[in-house]
Amino acid sequence: MSDITTLSFEEAMRELEATVGKLETGEATLEEAIALYERGAALRAHCEARLREAEERVEKITLAANGQPAGLTPAEGL
């Protein structure tokens, strides 16, 4: 398994969907199901963090008077 922190949002979502699919089949042993659940929870948290980062970047886009993007405003605390 790859390190979750290195996954893109899309990669993490695909893996999360596959993990949920494996859990839904009910074919995993108890230990496998626990490991899948833990990995799924970590993948979900990673996806949520990536979405938050993207939302913050979008919120910081500044617009020129004509409504066109003019650049980015640095996020607070950076």
From TrEMBL:
Major subcellular site: cytoplasm
Catalytic activity as recorded in UniProt: Exonucleolytic cleavage in either 5'- to 3'- or 3'- to 5'-direction to yield nucleoside 5'-phosphates
GO biological process: DNA catabolic process
EC main group: hydrolase
Coiled-coil region(s): none
Protein localization: Cytoplasm
Gene Ontology MF, one: exodeoxyribonuclease VII activity
UniProt xrefs under Gene3D superfamilies: Exonuclease VII, small subunit
Presence of keyword Hydrolase: yes
InterPro entries xrefs: Exonuc_VII_S, Exonuc_VII_ssu_sf
EC identifiers of the protein: 3.1.11.6
Keyword DNA damage: no
Listed GO CC annotations: cytosol; exodeoxyribonuclease VII complex
Pfam families noted in UniProt: Exonuc_VII_S
Keywords, comma-separated and alphabetical: Cytoplasm, Exonuclease, Hydrolase, Nuclease
Subunit comment: Heterooligomer composed of large and small subunits.
Similarity comment: Belongs to the XseB family.
Known role: Bidirectionally degrades single-stranded DNA into large acid-insoluble oligonucleotides, which are then degraded further into small acid-soluble oligonucleotides.
Protein's UniProt name: Exodeoxyribonuclease 7 small subunit
Natural source organism: Paracoccus hibiscisoli
Gene responsible for this protein: xseB
